Amino acid sequence: MNDDIQTILYSEQKIQAACQRLGQQLTQDYQGKKPLVICVLKGAVPFTADLIKQMDLYMDIDFIDVSSYHGGTQSSGDIQMVKDIDEDVSRRDVLLIDDIVDTGHTLAYLKELLKQRGAASVRVCMLMDKPEARQVKGMQADYVGFNVPNEFLVGYGLDYQGKYRNLPYVGILKPEIYQD
Ligand SMILES: O=P(O)(O)OC[C@H]1O[C@H](OP(=O)(O)OP(=O)(O)O)[C@H](O)[C@@H]1O
Ligand SMILES: Nc1nc2[nH]cnc2c(=O)[nH]1
């Protein structure tokens, strides 16, 4: 699997340092609150697991699965709910955790959903922000680990055709690996 990678952009060490920095900031910002942390499946699983260990807070954790990348490297822009959360978000301070904001369609859908359900506040923590790819204007995360180049990335949760999520780093695949 490692042989399929052309370039490592963010090493395991850099990612862990980002988790520590973001975790400290979130610990400060949510002091005295008990946020509802929502992990966006499946890509945000490694990031959420590492980040919450750096947050010295009481919290609830839930999971949501929405999908717009149907196997390839392009967002369809058509977001589908695959699995909803179990918790009631009304009057909760929600912290949404995802691995990447790219076109912004997924984030726009999730923010609107949580707002409609009456969350007291919604903040977003992303490991990566790909600003050059944005299609939904104004879609920004409140906490960002790395601003990334406009490339299709894999690893640390990010997949290509279901593979590479378990890499401990983020990188770019060799061109011959892509089938579309
Ligand atoms: O800003 P956008 O262009 O909407 O892209 C961002 C979304 O794409 C990926 O999820 P994906 O839909 O591929 O599902 P997955 O996490 O299960 O791989 C990623 O985890 C984000 O949720
Ligand atoms: N694997 C992967 N999924 C994404 N979803 C949105 N952007 C990306 C990306 O760069 N890589």
Automatic annotation (TrEMBL):
Its annotated compartments are: Cytoplasm
What's its EC?
A: 2.4.2.8
List, alphabetically, the InterPro entries matched.
HGPRT, Hxn_phspho_trans, PRTase-like, PRTase_dom
Cofactor(s) needed by this chain: Mg(2+)
Q: Keywords, A to Z?
A: Cytoplasm, Glycosyltransferase, Magnesium, Metal-binding, Nucleotide-binding, Purine salvage, Transferase
Catalytic activity, per the record? GMP + diphosphate = guanine + 5-phospho-alpha-D-ribose 1-diphosphate; IMP + diphosphate = hypoxanthine + 5-phospho-alpha-D-ribose 1-diphosphate
Q: Name one GO molecular function term.
A: glycosyltransferase activity
Pfam families attached here? Pribosyltran
Q: What residues does the Phosphoribosyltransferase domain cover?
A: 8-161
Q: What is its main location?
A: cytoplasm
Q: Which domain of life is it from?
A: Bacteria
Pathway of this protein? Purine metabolism; IMP biosynthesis via salvage pathway; IMP from hypoxanthine: step 1/1; Purine metabolism; GMP biosynthesis via salvage pathway; GMP from guanine: step 1/1
Say which family it is in. Answer: Belongs to the purine/pyrimidine phosphoribosyltransferase family.
Q: What does this protein do?
A: Purine salvage pathway enzyme that catalyzes the transfer of the ribosyl-5-phosphate group from 5-phospho-alpha-D-ribose 1-diphosphate (PRPP) to the N9 position of the 6-oxopurines hypoxanthine and guanine to form the corresponding ribonucleotides IMP (inosine 5'-monophosphate) and GMP (guanosine 5'-monophosphate), with the release of PPi.
- Protein known as: Hypoxanthine phosphoribosyltransferase
